[in-house]
Protein: Torsin
Organism: Engystomops pustulosus
Amino acid sequence: MKLLRAALWLLLPVISRAEPISITVGTVSVITGLISYYGLHNYFWGSSRVEGTVNVTALQLDFEKNIFGQHLAKQVIIKAVPRFLSNENPKKPLALSLHGWTGTGKNYISQILVNNIYSEYMRKKCVRTIVATLHFPHASHIQEYKDQLQTLVRSSVSDCERSIFIFDEIDKMHPGLIDAIKPFLDYYDHIDGVSYRKAIFIFLSNAGGEKITELSLKFWRAGRDREEIKLSDVEKDVYLSAFNKKDSGYWHSSLIDKNLIDVFVPFFPMEFRHVKMCVKAELERRGHDADEEITIAIAKDMTYYPSGEKVYSVKGCKTVSTKLDLFL
């Protein structure tokens, strides 16, 4: 930032004396290059954001405002990601695997995280989202997909050393395919002249959801608060469930076998009270008051399980926005 300001200060006299064409072709290109190099494309618009870093307080506020019922996910990400981003010499990339049923917030928390790390402009360069069923639909093309995946990671990190990769529906990926990126997650200083140690890999999966629900229900039936659940209570069951699930992306994967996933993060099923929180948050996002009558009506309109106790929303908060459209 200091170097950028100094360069701009030195260039001001040149700008004031230069012909219009020379300003456009010469000086502006220099300024643009400096701003681009330092990741400060919003400099002239008053942004103090430093790309590739995260404001912990702002991230916490975003999580508290938008993510409900996920105490462990918030704790893990708030600790792991800022610490990793502040480390200029990590030993390996950060790899987080988020597990839980549909609508529990895995994708949403990932988007909030990247939005706090990069501006929209830089996300186009530094964030890659890979959806298994969209990008790799055919089992017969697995070798081709492996090559494409390696090329994608290599190209992205070459352009942006703090690239973030989000792998959605990892449980639906063809077995063996995800192992193509194993070298990039390992403890190598460089691979063919490129260092991958500052990259972040986030994997989203439904695998392990049944184990997470079992534990949650056990606590609920015992009258215990789910916030008492510790990561050590559930992490092993989650990664073993993912590792042993046949016909899924993590089945006997070297990423798990070689301990290259740093944390397996559980996402708990959403109770009625959490669905209400989702409804209120969506109402506020749309500029409406958090009307209690509408909130309760929408929350009650969701389907809950198990059949007898009806504790958890089958679709979590995934259909809240659609339900709200019908009520407003």
